[in-house]
Structure formats: C-alpha cells, structure tokens
C-alpha cells in the first residue's frame, strides 16, 4: 500500500458485520479518500422497512432533555476527537512525508538543504527512488502468473488480520542499545560543507551538485589539525595516540629538526612517518584462508614483492579480531569495531587501521601485482601542492626551484593511491560511483601514522554515530505508525535496515559509511 494514499483509520479493506435486531451493516462502495457510508439491509424479523426506513412503533421514545444530553455528549466527543488528532498530527509531522500528509515538508528537500533531522527518518518513497536490482527470472515467473488465470493472487490481509500482526512488526535492532554520544564524546561536531553560492562557477560540467558531494570536514588547516589531534588522543590507546599526534605534526605542521629532537631524531622521524614503504608489509584480509593459494594472492606473497624484501600477511576474520583486541583494547575505536553491523564495514575499516598503525600496502585478495612496489610513484615528476608554498621548508623549496627533482629532494611519497574513476561529463555518474573523482581503496599504501588514514577512521566514527541516531529515529517512526494502526506503512519502514542506501531509506549506505566515498574524501581533503 502506498504511503501517500493510505489514511489513518481507513476501513476500505475491512468487512464489518454487526447484528443489531437482525439488521446487517455493510460498508458501501466509496471513492478513495472519502469516508465510508454504511448501507442498511433489513434482516428477517427486523423492525426496519427496506424502503420506508425504520418503523417508529418499535423504537423507544426519548424525551427532550435526554435528546439534548445525548447531543451535547456527541458534540463533546467530537471536540475531544479533533483535539486528539491535532496532538497526534504534531507527532506525525516529525516523520516528514512518511505518512504522505499534504503540507508536511519533504524530507528530501531537507536532505538537499543539509538540514535533515536524523531523529526521525521518513519512509522511502518508491515513486522517487530507484528500486534495488532483482533477478530477471523472477520477473518472468511473475509474468507467467499474471497471464495464467488458474494462479490465484495472494489475498490481501483484512483489517483485523493486519491489526493482529502489528505486534510482530519490529524495527531492525542494530543500534537501539547504543548511543551516538558514546562514540562522539570529547569530539567536536562534524562541520557541514560551506554554502555554495547559486551563481558560483562549477568545477566541472556536472554542475554544483557534483561539486558538493564531497564531504569536506574542516576547511581551515588549523581546524583540521586540531580535529585530528583531538581524535587521536580521545579514540586510541595512549601509546598509539602519541605516534599519531607526532605523525600529524610532521606531515601537517612546519618541520624543523628541533621539533624531533635534533637532526638524528629528525632523520628517524622521516623514516618512520614519511616513507610509504618504510614498513615493508603487504596486508590482505579475507573471511578465511581459502584463497591463500590463489594465483592472485601468490603474486603478492611469492613474486616481485618478496624479491624486494616485502613480508606478506593475510588476516582472516578471526585474525582481525585478535589484532584489534591486541592493538586497540579498551579504546573508542575498539567500541566502533565491535558495533559495526556488517563484515564489509569491518573489512573497509580494517584496511585503514592496518596502514595507519602498521604501515605498508593493503590490497584485496582478487588483485594481482604487475609492477614491483619499488617503482610505484616513480617515473614522472610530482606536481607539488601550491608549488610547495606553505608546507615545504625554505631549503627544500630552494633546491627544487634551482632545478633539483622533487623526488631527489623530498624522497618517496608518504601515501600511494590510484584514481578509480574520473567520470568526465557522465550525468549518470551517481548510479555507479559515490564521487565524480574516486580514489581506489582496494589497493593503497601508506606510511604509518599518516593523517589521511587517520582521517578516514575519524569519518567512520562519525558515520557510525549517525547510523545509531538513524536507528533510534527509525524505531520511533515505526512506533508512531503502529500506534495509529498503520500496518502497511509500519511494515514497509521496518523492512528498511541501517545498511540501506539513502535512496532506499537508509542513513548512509556502505559507500559513505566505510567505503570508497570515505577514503576519497579523506585523500582529497
């Protein structure tokens, strides 16, 4: 039943049979949206005449005083009923257009404006969203049934049956025992993207909407640094937090030997925090070890990388839990890990944590190594951000300006990533990728303690808190619908899970919770 056409208290799908002096009440046919009109049919021995109406001799006489009292009672009940529906309407307005009430602002308009209240997430509108992919064979079977008169369509539940089943309609349970504040305590709120002027020049032919899809976070570098330090100190064990803060200072703040305790310490910090291959470990993860002997995995384990001194390790799901417990026990990040509702969310999060804490290369088990890691990132002179102004030391900039190659001056990059998608002018890009320019996250390499990987984990922490808020709002919406006897709408909303894409009623979707959307935003930031 469409939420836009369903009305509270409707009896269009209900059969009423009331025996009153053998008179049978049946709902008359009426148009959608109108109130039911009851037809009265005489029964045997009834005091009702089929054409002339009820016979007065069989009806009790009511005095004037009693008729007045009865009329006042009816009016009073009507007023109380209107007041009750008015109070309920205030609750329902919070649900947005989940009930299809006219005059209620569309939640999609609020979402576009960035002001969506996650306390209550409305029911997904199938008229405005693309449906999930389905098996074509099911369509064929459906067509056969539609053309076969011998196949009976499933009977629609009666009103009484729907009411009986309301008790079994329950929201998805993930997140209902959690609080977003437990993940975000001590962290500053995530800032909204700066407003975009309507007459601003888009960065591409895709327009301003595509420009605004990137979740920027703090725009000012100083705010970004403080946000990252704050997160490192609050969310990680103390020993790891110290290394993360040191990495932030090295990569994002001015670099002098004094900061690291003299030239020798500075050289050591350079090895630890700057070179992406300073930790020669190749990380792979999988549910179990069944693919450990595949040709793709062997190319990383026994091929060119091994010849260059790279150590290979594959973490199964069990191994991952052991590693998390060993490295992050008692931390905020451990709590996030323990409460992620899906294996794919954990897989994404684990790769960022591995390169953040341990460093090295992460790659999926279905990839194959083609070039030795030693040549990654070499072959062309890098294009320096802002030509090095504001982040290179005076000595480094002088050497590059005098003609030395940037690689010879700066050494190897701290992070190596690839571009997975550059959609150009494809207007349907959002059907395939979360970002118009998307960074690969199925293979990546990083120095340990690098701010990019740390920022990705920070975004996952905020996204998990947002999903918890959504879960509570979804449960509240379902309760309101159940209280009003809205079986169809409550059932539809209960079928939406926390992993659904926003176009299907969910809070984030995997892509923007832990996947390529998160990694792309962290890299481009």
Automatic annotation (TrEMBL):
One of its GO terms (cellular component) is mannan polymerase complex. It comes from the Eukaryota. Pfam families: Gly_transf_sug. Gene3D superfamilies: 3.90.550.20. One of its GO terms (molecular function) is alpha-1,6-mannosyltransferase activity. One of its GO terms (biological process) is protein N-linked glycosylation. Belongs to the glycosyltransferase 32 family. PANTHER family: INITIATION-SPECIFIC ALPHA-1,6-MANNOSYLTRANSFERASE (PTHR31834). This is Alpha-1,6-mannosyltransferase.
């Amino acid at each position: 039943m469409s939420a836009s056409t369903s009305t509270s208290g409707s009896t269009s799908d209900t059969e009423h049979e009331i025996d009153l002096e053998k008179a049978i009440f049946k709902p008359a046919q009426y148009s959608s949206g109108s109130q039911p009109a009851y037809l009265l049919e005489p029964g045997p021995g009834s005091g009702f005449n089929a054409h002339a109406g009820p016979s007065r001799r069989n009806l009790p006489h009511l005095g004037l005083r009693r008729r007045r009292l009865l009329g006042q009672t009816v009016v009073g009940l009507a007023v109380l009923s209107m007041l009750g529906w008015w109070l309920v309407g205030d609750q329902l307005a919070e649900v947005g257009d989940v009930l299809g009430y006219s005059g209620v602002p569309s939640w999609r308009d609020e979402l576009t404006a960035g002001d969506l209240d996650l306390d209550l997430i409305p029911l997904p509108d199938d008229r405005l969203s693309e449906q999930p992919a389905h098996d074509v064979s099911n369509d064929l079977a459906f067509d056969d049934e539609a053309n076969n008169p011998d196949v009976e369509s499933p009977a629609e539940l009666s009103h009484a049956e729907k009411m009986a089943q309301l008790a079994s309609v329950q929201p998805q349970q993930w997140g209902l025992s959690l609080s977003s504040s437990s993940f975000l305590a001590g962290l500053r709120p995530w800032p909204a993207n700066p407003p975009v002027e309507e007459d601003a020049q888009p960065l591409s032919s895709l327009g301003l909407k595509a420009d605004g899809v990137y979740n920027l976070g703090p725009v000012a570098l100083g705010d970004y640094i403080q946000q990252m330090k704050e997160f490192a100190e609050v969310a990680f064990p103390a020993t790891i937090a110290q290394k993360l803060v040191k990495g932030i200072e090295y990569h994002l703040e001015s670099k002098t030997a004094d900061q690291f305790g003299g030239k020798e310490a500075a050289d050591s910090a350079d090895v630890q925090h700057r070179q992406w291959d300073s930790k020669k470990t190749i990380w792979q993860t999988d549910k179990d070890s069944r693919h450990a002997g595949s040709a793709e995995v062997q190319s990383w384990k026994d091929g060119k990388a091994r010849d260059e001194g790279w150590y290979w390790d594959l973490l199964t799901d069990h191994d991952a839990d052991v590693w998390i417990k060993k490295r992050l026990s008692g931390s905020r990040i451990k709590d996030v890990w323990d409460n992620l509702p899906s294996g794919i969310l954990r897989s994404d999060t684990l790769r960022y944590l591995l390169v953040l804490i341990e460093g090295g290369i992460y790659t999926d088990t279905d990839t194959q190594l083609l070039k030795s890691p030693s040549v990654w990132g070499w072959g062309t002179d890098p294009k320096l951000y802002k030509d090095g102004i504001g982040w290179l030391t005076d000595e480094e900039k002088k050497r590059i300006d005098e003609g030395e190659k940037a690689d010879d001056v700066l050494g190897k990059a701290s992070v190596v990533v690839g571009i997975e998608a550059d959609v150009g002018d494809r207007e349907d890009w959002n059907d395939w990728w979360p970002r118009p320019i998307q960074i690969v996250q199925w293979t990546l390499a990083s120095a340990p303690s690098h701010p990019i990987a740390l920022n990705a984990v920070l975004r996952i922490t905020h996204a998990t808190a947002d999903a918890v808020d959504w879960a509570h709002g979804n449960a509240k919406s379902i309760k309101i619908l159940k209280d009003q006897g809205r079986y169809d709408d409550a059932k539809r909303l209960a079928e939406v899970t926390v992993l659904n894409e926003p176009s299907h009623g969910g809070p984030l979707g995997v892509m923007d919770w832990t996947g390529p959307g998160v990694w792309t935003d962290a890299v481009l930031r």
